[in-house]
Design brief:
The protein is α+β, with helices and mostly antiparallel strands. Helices cover 22% and strands 11% of the residues. It has one domain. The chain has a two-stranded antiparallel ribbon.
Amino acid sequence: MRTAVLAAVAATAAITMPSLTNAGPAPAPTIQSEKCYGVNAAGGNDCAAAGSHSCAGEAKTARDPKSWIYVPAGTCQKIDGGSTTPKQA
């Protein structure tokens, strides 16, 4: 029985892992949104940053001025440090 459980867990992991490792931009949200630079969490960006990284989830630091996340349209300027254009570090 224990072997069957371990086999099921291993099979589930094998099926799920490829979808977790596909690097690329985050899908655009279904709400009206805008890109907001400088407000991301470390590893929480939605896409590339020029000269830094190429994919979603790769920001090394929080509040990276070149990394962006999607936010509801009209809210970026209301967030401390938020900008709708990339900033120089």
